[in-house]
Structures are given as C-alpha cells and as structure tokens.
Write a structure and sequence with these properties.
Blueprint lengths: L1 H21 L22 H9 L4 E3 L4 H18 L5 E2 L9 E5 L6 H5 L1 E6 L2 E6 L2 H16 L9 E3 L5 E5 L30 H12 L3 E3 L12 H15 L4 E6 L3 H4 L11 H17 L5 E4 L16 H12 L5 E5 L14 H6 L10 E6 L23 E6 L15 H8 L12 H5 L10 E5 L15 H12 L5 H12 L4 H22 L30 H4 L5 E2 L16 H7 L10 H4 L2 E2 L10 H26 L5 H33 L14 H12 L2
Parallel strand pairs: 1-2, 1-3, 3-5, 7-8, 7-14, 8-9, 9-10, 10-11, 11-12, 12-13, 13-14
Antiparallel strand pairs: 4-5, 4-6, 15-16
The protein binds beta-D-glucopyranuronic acid.
Pfam families: Glyco_hydro_67C, Glyco_hydro_67M, Glyco_hydro_67N
Catalytic activity: Hydrolysis of (1->2)-alpha-D-(4-O-methyl)glucuronosyl links in the main chain of hardwood xylans
EC number: 3.2.1.131
C-alpha cells in the first residue's frame, strides 16, 4: 500500500514537472484559495529595493484587535512580497524606514471614520485613520498597491467609503446548503460550531476586509427560526468573534413568525405587546452574546414567507417593531422590498412600488429598505427599480446579486461590474438631471445618513470559494464598488486580474477585454433585446415554452408574451403602464418603441415580428442575429483565454478553459431553445446568413426535460 502511495506521488510529481516544462513562464500551481491576496514575490528589482527601504519595522501604538489584524496582514504580505519578516514595534519615535499606523481622533461622520490616508512622512510610510477599521482598510490598500508593484515615492492615497453599510448577504441554510449557491455548500459549519471554529472564517474575513466590506448576514432570507434559538445564537457568536477582528459586523435574517413557531406565542402580530416583548427579550439575549451585533435582515410577505400583513399590518409596522426592539443598541433593521402578490392581472414589475411608496415616511429611522436593483428579479439586464428616488423620506439600500442565479451559475463567465454600474449610473430624474441611483443609495440625493449596499454572496465551500475562478472577480467588484461606486468596471477588472491571475500586461489585456464583454455576450444568447426569464424552477435551463405554474408570474410565457403578432411586454399606457412609475424624462427614454434603446425594447413593448428596428433589421432577424452572435462570441472568449495561457497558473487555466467549453455548449442550447420556440410564433425562417439549428424544438425540449430530471 505504502509503495503504491509513493509511486502515485512520484508519478504525480512527474506530471507536474512535465506541465511546468511545457509551460515555463506559468506561475506555480495555485488552487485559487488565496483570491486576490496572493502576495506573489515582487519581481521588479528596483521596486523591491524601494519597498525594502520601508521594511525595518511596523509601528502600531494601538492594542486593538483590528489594528492587530492589520499588523498581522502587513507582516504576512511583506514576508511574501519582499521576503522579509518585518518586526512590530509600538512607537516609531525618531526611527525611519518603516510603516507607521497613526490613529487620529474621530471627528467626521461614519464614512470619514472608516477612511484612510497613506503617504510618506519623514522617512516612513504613514497609514492614518480615525478608526481601527480605517487603519485596516489602509493597510489592505497599501498591500494592493505593492502587489501591483507600484512605487511608494510619491504615494498619496486618501480614500473614504461613500456608503456606510457595505454588506454581503448569505443565503445559507442550517443544513449546509445555499439557496442559489453554485460553489459547493455553506462555509458555515453549523454542526461543529461553536466548539470548532474553521480557520477558513478568518480568510473569509480577510478577503472582505480587503475590500472594505463591514457587515455580513450569515443566513438565508428565507430564514429558519432556529437562528433565533439560544443554540444558534451561540454558534453565530463564535463566527462573530472572528469577523469582529476584521471590522465586520454580523447580522441575521429573521423568520418573522418566530415568536409563534419558536416562542410558542399565539401569533406574531407586530402590534401585539407580547410579540413585541418577545423580540425585545430576544434582542437583549443576542446582544449579551454578541455585543456588536449588526441587526436584522427581513424578507416578509414575499414568496410565501410570513410577515405583518398576515395580521393586517403593514411592512412599516413590522419593521418598526423590530426597530423598537433594537432601540437600546446600535443595530439596524434591513427590510426587503422584494414583494409581489399572486394577482393574475397584475404586472409584477409594479408590485414593490405599489406596496412601498405609500409607506414612505412611516419607517423608524433605524430601518433601511433594501431594494433589488431591478423591478423584477436579478435578470441579466433590467431597468432600474422605480423605487429608487421615489421614497425620499426612507433610506433605500441597494441589493445586488453576486451569485449567478440568472447568469449561468458557475459555468458561464459573466463579469458583473458593468451590470452594477449600469444600474448605479441610471438617472432617476427625481431631483432633475443627474439624480442617479448611486446618489439615492449613497444618501447624497435625499440626505440619508444611514446608507447601505448589499450583495448576495457567491461564496461556498469550493476550495476557490466561488466555483468559477472568474466569479471571484464579481465578489471583488462588488466590494470595490460598495466602497467607491465611481470606480470603473474596467479599472476594477484590470486590478483584479493583476492581483489574482497574472502580472503580464498582454495577457491581462486579453482577460480584461473578455471580462468586459462577457455580460453582453451572455445577454446575446440568453435574454437579448430586453427579454427576461425569471420563471420558476432551477433558473438555468431554457424553457421559454413553460406556461403552467402555481401562479401566472411563475411561468415563462407571462414574461415574454410571444404570440403570432409579436414579442415583449407592453408596459406603456396601452399595456400595464408600469412606465408611469418613473419620472417623465425616464418614461421618454422608453415610451416610444422607435426610440427605446434596443437592449430595453422588449421590457416595455410588444413589438411585431416584422417591425424594422433601429438596426435596420426586423425584430425577428435582429433576435436571430443576437442569439447567434452571443453564442458565437463564446468562442471569441475562448480565444482570449488561450492567448493568456502561458502567463496563467496551469490549474486555473485548465479550469476556466473547461468551463468555457461548457458555456459554449450551453450558449448554443439557449440560442436554439429561444429561436426554435419563438419561430413557432414568427413563422419565419432563420436569416440566410445564419446556419439554422441542427435540431428540432422537440429535441431541445427533450434535452431540457432530461436536464431537469431528478
Ligand atoms: C429569487 C430567488 C429565490 C430568493 C428570492 C429572494 O430565486 O431563491 O429567495 O429571489 O430574493 O431570485 O427572496
């Protein structure tokens, strides 16, 4: 047996050597675990000499846990970057040639408190901030700068976050599964907590802190009441103890009916004094165990979850009850606006606005209403939610989805920063031109101090955290934009690629190019021209023909409305009139089918198959062209990836290359499904310049059924 192991090891070694021999410039084998914190040795000799000039000591006068983490990170980073173990001292005094943490008295608002400055001062690099968190963020910024081998000489970085609460939302369950998770199981090992604390929690915290993320909701919005039990509060506390060291507060999703199901009360009416007392006691119990607990995230009266409306109360009543329970503490209530009633005649697009706008001004100041970026549900492209700007008396937070529920799971490469940016830069026009969504959520438009941005996490127990190696970039991009929404998608992609994949410029350019186009390519074969597909099921397989569901808005046909006349959802005055929820200037962009930009066309109009579009093609022809060009462009992505091959880690290269092949196959699957199905309505041939699918609609349907089989 022993001999067999030795032999296996030997042949494994030979294989590795062979791989390296054929690929001499590729870096060492990497499993993706280190994310963008790889701290690969500095290769630029002059830069290394400069870095060594500041590597005599790290001066940290503070005794706090968070500056302790900053110190540890800097020591680890420098050891790996320049090969030197840098000693820690408490004060620099007159010494020069080191890095100094300088904590200043707090004067500004919460954003200023988390900001930092980095600059050379009298022979040292000084990281100054008004809080320990600021020092930590500054440390990570310095390390990022050094990983990119930038000089320190004229370094002057000054940065403050634009949004106060920058959070991840995990949709993780007690049984270790993750709702809409595609990278393995949950990283939270509930069954072994609180006794065993997985070291991975600390690496998770480091990664988030490196981006400035300062809060995390540990569990699914479809929450289990168990999280409010004493047993789970103890488990949560063990995780919170780790996250705290990195400036991250822990939050929990709550099951609104917990007073009844867990507490044994008759009901969970938010105006019932017994229910209110139950929550007040529960909150006190939580704070006793987790003194810096962040607060609650709530999905109520949505998709079957319980809520205040079960007792004839409003969302404001429910949220305010929890806010009252949190009053003695620092915690907040994040109340989700993702609601839509099962009304067969309604347009789901309009639901959140109709329920929430009338409540504007009724929420307790501790409440933030968290709104998904679009009015429906995390589609590859959506217009911005009309709630943004229309609740001036209520702080609205942004909810983006990082996990790729509608973006091809972990098989398709879709870089999401362009999606995030598109929404943030949309103009609501509520206070005239320039009233962007970003200004709504950063509080500058309506003067909110409590501002929030959340991303539904894409992390899991896979060794590389996100399944698809390129999906790490989406976690990274979310965090960077949460800190500063003015960064460009390109800048973030370039940064991430350099930190994570390769320092070689040419290869980086190929990868960045591919990342920047990836979302449009995906939309091309998946939801071109403003189609959407939030139908029920696994949210992956193409089923545009699905017409039966528990409710109309859980079918595919509800959304695309294909018929013999044309395609698309009429949301103008002749249809659902959802457009009226936007300001006139926004309506003007989308009201007229002749002027609506093609990417949004079918979101707002039912367009006839033969209508000539701005592109010069008819709707049918344009649709075919986009489906084909999307699917074909996956081959172009494969080429870009190949061009970078020699500068990539061998494992990461092979992993992505394999996934791109899957993406190519599935892109054709989507293309054929839409095309063959919609052809039954358009009754037109595929344009002559394109090669028609080599299978029938029935064959595609069969393959989908097999895919969906248990
Ligand atoms: C939908 C997901 C569902 C979530 C829901 C939500 O399919 O799993 O529970 O959103 O955000 O997109 O509450």
């Amino acid at each position: 047996m022993f001999k067999k192991i030795l032999l296996t090891l030997f042949s494994f070694q030979l294989t590795c050597m062979a791989t390296f021999a054929s690929n001499p410039t590729a870096p060492e084998d990497d499993d993706g675990y280190r994310l963008w914190l790889r701290y690969e040795p500095v290769t630029n000799a002059a830069i290394k000499v400069e870095y060594l000039k500041y590597a005599s000591f790290i001066a940290n006068t503070e005794k706090g846990e968070i500056t302790g983490s900053a110190l540890k990170e800097l020591q680890t980073g420098l050891k790996q970057l320049i090969g030197k173990r840098v000693p820690a001292i408490t004060t620099a005094g007159s010494r020069t040639g080191g890095v100094v943490f300088s904590l200043k008295p707090a004067t500004g608002d919460s954003a200023a408190k988390e900001g930092y400055q980095i600059q050379p001062v009298s022979g040292n690099i000084v990281i100054s901030a008004q809080s320990e968190r600021g020092i930590l963020y500054g440390t990570f910024a310095l390390l990022r700068h050094m990983q990119m081998q930038q000089p320190l000489k004229n370094l002057r970085i000054s940065s403050t976050p634009k949004i106060r609460y920058r959070m991840l939302n995990h949709w993780d369950n007690t049984d270790g599964t993750i709702e809409r998770g595609y990278a393995g199981g949950s990283i939270w090992k509930w069954y072994e907590l609180p006794e065993r604390v997985d070291p991975r929690y600390e690496d998770y915290a480091r990664a988030n802190a490196s981006l400035g993320i300062n809060g995390t909701v540990l569990n699914n919005v479809n929450a289990s009441a168990r999280f409010m039990s004493q047993e789970y509060i103890g488990k949560v506390a063990a995780i919170a103890n780790v996250l705290r060291k990195y400036g991250i507060k822990t939050y929990l999703s709550v099951y609104f009916a917990a007073p009844k199901t867990l507490g044994g009360l008759a009901g969970s009416d938010p105006l019932d004094p017994n229910v209110r007392a139950w929550w007040a006691d529960k909150v006190a119990e939580i704070y006793k165990t987790i003194p810096d607990f962040g607060g609650f995230l709530v999905k109520a009266n949505s998709e079957g979850e319980p809520g205040p409306q079960d007792y004839g109360r409003t969302h404001a009543d429910g949220a305010n009850m929890l806010a009252a329970a949190l009053k003695p503490y620092d915690g907040i209530v994040v109340w989700r606006a993702f609601v839509y009633k099962a009304d067969p005649d309604a347009d789901r697009f309009k639901a959140a606005y109709e329920e929430f706008v009338p409540l504007d001004g009724q929420f307790d100041p501790k409440v933030i209403v968290q709104v998904k970026n679009g009015p429906i549900d995390f589609q590859p492209r959506e217009p911005f939610s009309p709630l943004f700007g229309n609740m001036p008396k209520t702080p609205l937070g942004m909810e983006f989805q990082i996990t790729q529920e509608y973006l091809g799971f972990a098989a398709h490469a879709v870089y999401e920063a362009p999606l995030f940016k598109e929404c943030l830069e949309s103009d609501t026009w509520v206070n005239g031109q320039g009233s962007t969504v970003a200004k709504v959520i950063d509080g500058s438009l309506h003067g909110y101090e409590r501002t929030l941005i959340a991303g539904v996490a894409n992390t899991g127990s896979d060794r590389n955290w996100t399944g698809h190696p390129l999906a790490q970039a989406n976690w990274y991009a979310f965090g960077r934009l949460a800190w500063d929404h003015q960064l460009s998608a390109e800048q973030i992609a370039a940064e991430w690629t350099q930190l994570t994949l390769t320092r070689q410029i040419k290869s980086r350019e190929h990868i960045v190019k591919m990342m920047l186009r990836s979302r449009e390519i995906y939309i091309g074969y998946n939801t071109p021209l403003g189609l959407s597909r939030p139908w029920m099921g696994v949210h992956f397989a193409p089923e545009p023909w699905q017409s039966r569901g528990a409710r109309p808005d859980w079918t595919a046909t509800y959304y695309h409305r294909a018929d013999s006349a044309g395609l698309g959802f009429d949301r103008t005055t002749s249809g659902s009139n959802a457009l009226s929820q936007y300001r006139p200037q926004v309506q003007a962009q989308w009201n007229d089918p002749d002027k609506t930009p093609l990417p949004y066309l079918l979101w707002f109009h039912h367009v006839s198959w033969n209508k000539k579009l701005g592109s010069g093609r008819t709707l049918w022809d344009e649709l075919c062209h986009r489906l084909y060009s999307g699917a074909d462009s996956v081959s172009w992505m494969q080429q870009q990836w190949e061009l970078a091959r020699n500068d990539l880690d061998t494992r990461v290269y092979a992993d992505v290359a394999g996934r791109l092949k899957v993406q190519r196959r599935e892109a054709i699957w989507w293309r054929d499904a839409w095309l063959l199905y919609l052809q039954t309505f358009s009754r037109q041939p595929v344009p002559a310049s394109l090669t028609p699918p080599d299978r029938t609609l029935e064959e595609v349907k069969k393959s989908v059924n097999i895919y969906l089989m248990r």
